[in-house]
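Technical appendix A lists one of the benchmark inputs used to test multi-chain prediction within the project. The record comprises two sequence entries:
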Amino acid sequence: MKILSILILVCMVFPAYADDDSSSGDDNQITAVDNKQYLNECGSCHFAYQPSLLPIRSWKKLMLQLADHFGDNAELAAEEQKQLTDYLVANSADLSPDKFAKKLLQGLAKDETPLRITIIPYFVHEHDKIPKKAIGDNPEVKSLSYCNKCHTGAETGNYSENSIKIPGYERLNDDNSSH
Amino acid sequence: MKINSEFIFVSTLLLSSSVYATEAVDELLEEYQQVLQSEQEEVSFTAEAGEILWFQEFADEKSGKIRQCTTCHTDDLRNEAKHTRTGKLIKPMAPSVNEERLTEIKNIRKWLKRNCKWTLGRECSAQEKGDVLTFIQAQ
């Protein structure tokens, strides 16, 4: 009896280390990138973040400062810059039908224009229980900016929890629940 | 007979050195040449000068860190490489192992502009661009 109650307690206390809200597949599925130009131009240097991960104001600001794109020069010809901005705006969090996009916008102050997805409150909340050793201190991941390192379905817009696999850290769940 | 074999040797040389020539590069080299011809008498682009530029070290104004072409592309252009910040795979630069290289004029312009600004802190001159293209072409 005692053992049983301890077991129940353990199960209640350690629902892995993910967030507390129950994850429904649909909520964590966002519209995939289907724009070849975007995949080519932006995706040649980094993971092609889905446009619904930032609001219109962020995309506009970011696309106007490509000469210093987080320390890199990512300048585009004027025409391409406009075409890509149009794509990003049309599919931004503000205009996207994705439930996920609405959650992203909910916690974000209207006068804030984040240029990094990783500082959006909802994003921070979703990742704040992951130990440092799994991401920042994990040489195979390094940063939360590399979505597709752990979200194996990131390219197709699938951010559901059951598709997460942290490289070099398979036993993370086990480590966590043994404390 | 001797003349013949010499002839064959020379033509093979010529052929092998032009294997990776592309219309895109030809067009760009001509463009750079025209720019330079208005300023100087003799214009020539060499792989040697391009190689020197490829390995030259530049200190980034903000961070003070050394930047060079090899920071992302590695010493051997036939290698696959990784973007120094994002870790994204960069396919080999050498046309001998990656036939897609130097085929699209728009692409070449874009990357020369971006990467010169990142590496040297300024746009490259017509001479530098001509030399470095000639160097890459020979890989």
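The two ends of chain A are 22 Å apart (CA to CA). Chain A has eight helices and no strands. Comparable benchmark entries are summarised in Table A2.
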